[in-house]
Amino acid sequence: MSSTTARRPASIVPKPPSSLSPTCVIAESASLTGTNLITVSSNAVLHPRAKIIATYAPVVIGEGCIVCERASVGLLNADSDEEEESGIGVILEKNVTIEAGAIVEAKFVGEGTTIELGARIGKGAILGKHCKVTPLSVIAPGENLPDFTVVYGLFDRRIEKPGLEVLREKVHEKHIEVLRRLIPTNLAKWKS
Asked: Whole-model pTM?
């Protein structure tokens, strides 16, 4: 008695258009979806199960950005045709860190900004340079945060004094070096 097992054809999901730096790290189980361009710059790291969504608008991941597990970057839905036609999506500048479970739909996130565990950044928000959004904080859609803003608690904000940016950048670079050794990458999987 021979039994033949019918194999179901593998679902073929089209790869999104992408521009990937050869020095970026994208984990095998990261998710890049959508029909708009996804740009991942040099030394950026996408952890396993990180989601980049370019269904409604393009996404730009800047140099040295880190997107952690279960974090989502990109617009989750389109509220109007005007937004889709504008072509403005999500832009992460240099050395931005998006921690686990955070959702980022912001129009722009400035250099050196950290968005911590489970935070939610609303559609169209603009975050300045070197901001910090603490765990589970929410930034309203369209909100504009000035440089060096720390968001904590329910609605609390304060402006941090500048001066530690160089030190933070060095620590960030070391973090990326460690992640490059720990996370296996297969850029060929994402090349269009």
From this structure: 0.86
Neighbour tally for 17: CB within 10 Å:
15
DSSP letters of 1-17? ----PPPPPPP-PPPPP
Instruction: Report the SS3 class of residue 80.
Output: coil
Cα-Cα-Cα-Cα dihedral sign, residues 160, 163, 167, 168: positive
- C-alpha distances in angstroms, 26 versus 17, 29, 103, 148? 15, 8, 18, 29
For 67-73, the CB contacts below 8 A with 24+ separation are: 67/98, 68/97, 68/98, 68/99, 68/100, 68/102, 69/100, 69/101, 70/100, 70/101, 71/47, 71/98, 71/99, 71/100, 71/101, 71/102, 71/103, 71/104, 72/102, 72/103, 72/104, 73/98, 73/104
Mean pLDDT by 10 residues, the chain (192 residues): 52 77 93 93 94 94 95 85 62 96 95 95 94 94 94 82 84 92 85 67
The residue with tokens 């609303």 is: 122
| Closest-CA residue to 123 (of 108, 99, 107) | 107
Stated as kind and residue range, the H or E segment containing 19 is strand 18-20
Query: What is the pLDDT at residue 154?
Result: 74
In this prediction, residue 1 carries a pLDDT of 47
